[in-house]
Amino acid sequence: MNSKTILSTVAILSLTACGGTGADAGSVESASNGASAQGGPARSISAEDKKKGSEAHPQLLQEFGGIYSGPQTAYVVRVGQDIAVQSGLGDARSDFTVTLLNSPVNNAFAIPGGYVYLTRQLMALMNDEAEMAGVLGHEVGHVAARHGQKRQKAAQRNSILGALGQIGAAILLGDSALGKLGQEVFGTGSQLLTLRYSRKQEYEADDLGIRYLASAGYDPQALSTMLESLAAQSAIDARAAGRDARSVPEWASTHPDPAQRVSRAARNAQKLGVSSGKRNRDAFLANVDGVMYGDDPKQGVIQGNDFLHPDLRLKFAVPNGFKMQNGARAVTISGSAGQGQFTTAAYNGNMASYIDSAFRQLSGQGQAISYGDIQRTTVNGLPASYAIGRVNGKSGQIDVTIFAYEFSKSSAFHFATLAPAGRASVFTPMYDSVKRLTSAEAAAIKPRKIDVVTVRSGDTIDSLSRKMAYTSYSKDRFLVLNRLRSNDGLRVGQKVKIVTY
After folding, report:
1. What single DSSP character describes residue 346?
2. Cα–Cα distance for residue pair 370/354, rounded to 1 Å
3. Do 289 and 452 touch, CB atoms closer than 8 A?
4. What angle do CA 456, 460, 462 make, to 5 degrees?
5. CA–CA gap between residue 167 and residue 484 (Å, rounded)
6. Beta carbons within 8 Å of 115's beta carbon, 6+ residues apart
7. pLDDT tens across the length of the chain (501 residues)
8. Helices (H), ranges, 322-370
9. Rounded to whole angstroms, how far apart are CA atoms 100 and 122?
10. Is the distance from CB of 1 to CB of 331 less than 8 angstroms?
11. Which is it for the CA torsion 253, 215, 71, 4, positive or negative?
12. Which residues participate in catalysis according to the annotation?
């Protein structure tokens, strides 16, 4: 949640990143669909797809932290457009829009129209240019094989929008007013562009990405090694968060067994008969040096169940079982019992008007949401007000709550939450947790970054791990960040990555 952007916005947007499950797929040889790396007629991206992508692109930027402003951006764009040429699409360099996102999530995705996205966090996990080209090539493969269009049709056919399971489907598939409510809260217009791929489509994109690597002169094994690092990082993140370490990482969430996907990618790379290729490790490390790692304090940070924003001087905590995703305009909260967002709007000192405006924003141009009396209270010294409305969905009634806080005579923040009728209290602990950050608490929140260092005489994995800006799993994080094993030795002059403040 960007402190500069959020103070002027009244929109609430939520988009979901790519992932998914599905059926199995074939090998490299079967993954063409007119998108082969060599041969076959070149074709351009359709005007219709370009229009869809250009409409969704600004919303995706808002949701996923915006474009990263570091010098790494131009490098990622160049490599991404170079690998896109291998897809056989006409004039791919200009047709593809490659974006490095200011997001702390390990992810990459693509939408129709040639829009390809990579987060700075996933870039930081990579160890060479070939791995980055492999991930970008995988996403280009989705576009070349028109997977986005196919999954949109499948989603529309099966009515799978998935934001709240049955609760979300009840809202998103209801009448015009509820459809607008779902679009405003969950960004369903763009969500159709970012729904989960099937496993078959992910495998096919893997295969195409491998082919693009080989035709561009890169080591085709690079996608496999990147997937291996991602699975290892996911295990660390899960342990640190108290989750099952076998849970699947965001970008690899299309496969229940990441190790199998790694080995499959390696086998299919071998089938190409290319024994080696460029990795461009030095060039990559020179570019990744200094990239921000983890949360950007200007957008707020997520620490376990807590959200803290040093610039806005506020914090809150979500209940157990809920997760957060931070965007430029809002923090999205989701769980099986409900979903919501924390955001802001224009405030003139009239809380009743503010809450009414928030309800009207949710209903959009559709039928107004009827809500009860506005209740006033105080939360941790903050003047607060809330009201609950109720809407009818196909699977039952839904409680819509606006819970707002006055931080000054000219600024206010609020939660907009959805829960099954009669269960709105699931969010009460979250409402009660909002408070101001002290100056000391705000000052303690510092950005982390990647620091590429040269191994000196006497340096060991243990000694360098102790320099990591983490108090837990520092050695594990160091090993995964550099694709090392605990019994590996370091050589003088070798370059490695550490995370520092």
Report:
1. -
2. 15
3. yes
4. 140
5. 44
6. 53, 56, 57, 60, 96, 97, 99
7. 775 443 322 222 222 233 332 322 333 333 334 444 444 334 678 888 889 899 999 988 988 889 999 999 999 999 999 999 898 876 678 889 999 999 998 999 988 888 999 999 999 999 999 999 999 999 999 888 876 666 555 544 443 223 222 222 223 222 333 333 344 444 433 343 444 677 788 888 888 999 999 999 999 999 989 988 988 998 888 787 665 444 444 444 443 355 666 677 778 777 776 667 899 999 999 999 999 999 999 999 998 899 999 999 999 999 998 988 887 788 989 888 899 999 999 999 999 999 999 998 887 655 678 999 999 999 999 999 999 999 886 678 899 999 999 999 999 999 999 999 999 999 999 999 999 999 999 999 999 999 999 999 999 999 999 999 998 999 999 999 999 999 999 999 999 999 999
8. 351-363
9. 10
10. yes
11. negative
12. 139
Residue 426, both tokens: 């699931």
Both tokens assigned to 416: 């907009």
The neighbouring-strand residues paired with 392 are: 397
* Spatial distance between the Cα atoms of 456 and 101, rounded to a whole number of angstroms: 33
Task: Give pLDDT, residue 145.
Answer: 82
Contact 182, 171 (CB under 8 A): yes
Q: Quick one: which of 51, 20, 71 has its CA closest to 195?
A: 20
**Residue 479's closest CA among 224, 489, 471?**
489
* Pair 223, 206: CB distance under 8 Å: yes
Say how far apart CA 462 and CA 484 lie, in whole Å: 12
Q: What is the pLDDT of residue 42?
A: 41
pLDDT at 167: 28
In the 3-class helix/strand/coil scheme, how is 441-487 assigned residue by residue? HHHCCCCEEEEEEECCCCCCHHHHHCCCCCCCCHHHHHHHHCCCCCC
Measured CA to CA, the distance from residue 281 to residue 270 in angstroms comes to 21
Which residue is associated with the tokens 């047709």?
95
> What token pair was written down for 168?
């979300």
Strand, coil or helix: 242: coil
3-class SS of residue 378? strand
Q: Which two tokens stand for residue 371?
A: 């809500």
Domains of the chain in start order, with CATH, are 23-160+195-288 (no CATH), 297-443 (3.40.1000.10), 447-500 (3.10.350)
Structure tokens at 183: 């679009």
| Tokens standing for residue 148 | 């986005």
* Distance from C-alpha of 92 to C-alpha of 427, rounded to nearest angstrom: 47
Beta strands in 17-125 (DSSP E): 97-101, 108-111, 115-119
- Check if the beta carbon of residue 179 is closer than 8 Å to that of residue 237: no
Give the C-alpha separation, 133 to 191, whole Å. 26
d(CA 69, CA 62): 14
The whole-model pTM stands at 0.76
Which residues, in sequence order, are bridge partners of residue 451?
A: 498
